[in-house]
Amino acid sequence: MEWALELNRLTKRFGDKVAVDGLDLRLPPGAFLGLLGRNGAGKSTTLKMVTGLLQPTEGSIRVLGLDLGADPIAVKRQIGVMPEDMALLEFLSGPQYLRFVGRMYGLDDATADARRLELFSKLDLDPPAGALVSDYSYGMKKKLSLCAALIHAPRMLFLDEPFEGIDAVTSRTIKEILAGLQTRGVTLILTSHIMEVVERLCPLIAILDEGRLKGFGSLEDLREGAGAEDLESLFVDLVGGAQKGELSWL
Questions:
Q1: Can you give the pLDDT at residue 18?
Q2: Which uninterrupted H or E stretch holds 221?
Q3: How many CB atoms lie within 10 A of CB 131?
Q4: pTM over the 0.85 mark
Q5: CA atoms within 13 A on the CB side of 229
Q6: Which of these, 196, 154, 156, lies nearest to 175 by C-alpha position?
Q7: Which candidate, 101, 131, 138, places its Cα nearest to that of 119?
């Protein structure tokens, strides 16, 4: 099988800190993976490496059958990325930014503009004419970041906390878009701290803790193996460290 994503002994160190530690992971085409972990578990670092934003210290990455280290441009042409920090060009307007992104992916302006109009309509994104991205609310910026990840019709999509700051109506629309993409064979990787979202959307789950893979497989298999009732219980059982919620003065 030609894997959509293949990580072999993927490792990232920052000085003495090991953020990702010998990660092995393989995803088939069309998979929808929910990547979970506590803050600092290595999720965002892993996504930055597999999308070419960070160089690994050790190990190899293959995306859509291509070696990311040997041919990063060919990989980046075929993936969409919605990073946690969004990394938008804030002194452009939203339409200008998406036209720029479209050009980067080889789209002509007419195609980019038509897709932008459809995306804005779907996501209920209606900024004032001429408003700069810097003036957008946090939720509007999240929607614009998703537009930029989708505009070129990627074969693989990476979403880091896509529902953070998004209203309930647009969240439902995004879930429907993602379900449609998976039906058409797009490979999806999503990180979120909202367990209910991952449980509902993602047939495959990977749980990281201290940069290591603590669990990987279908939710049903992982739950049965751990004897957990739901994803939150499974997650807490695997990573440990849960503390009682009481405070001494309350």
A1: 95
A2: helix 219-226
A3: 12
A4: yes
A5: 0
A6: 196
A7: 101
Angle between helices 138-150 and 168-183 (to 10 degrees): 10
- CA-to-CA separations, 69 to 54, 55, 132, 149, in angstroms, rounded: 11, 8, 35, 21
- Contact 90/39 with Cβ under 8 angstroms? no
Q: What is the pLDDT of residues 21-66, one digit of tens each?
A: 999 999 999 999 999 998 889 999 999 999 999 999 999 999 999 9
Quote the DSSP letter at residue 133. G
* 130-137: long-range pairs with CB below 8 Å, 24+: 130/93, 131/93, 131/94, 132/90, 132/91, 132/92, 132/93, 133/88, 133/89, 133/90, 133/91, 133/92, 133/93, 133/94, 133/97, 134/90, 134/91, 136/94
pLDDT tens figures, 202-231: 999 999 999 999 999 998 888 777 777 788
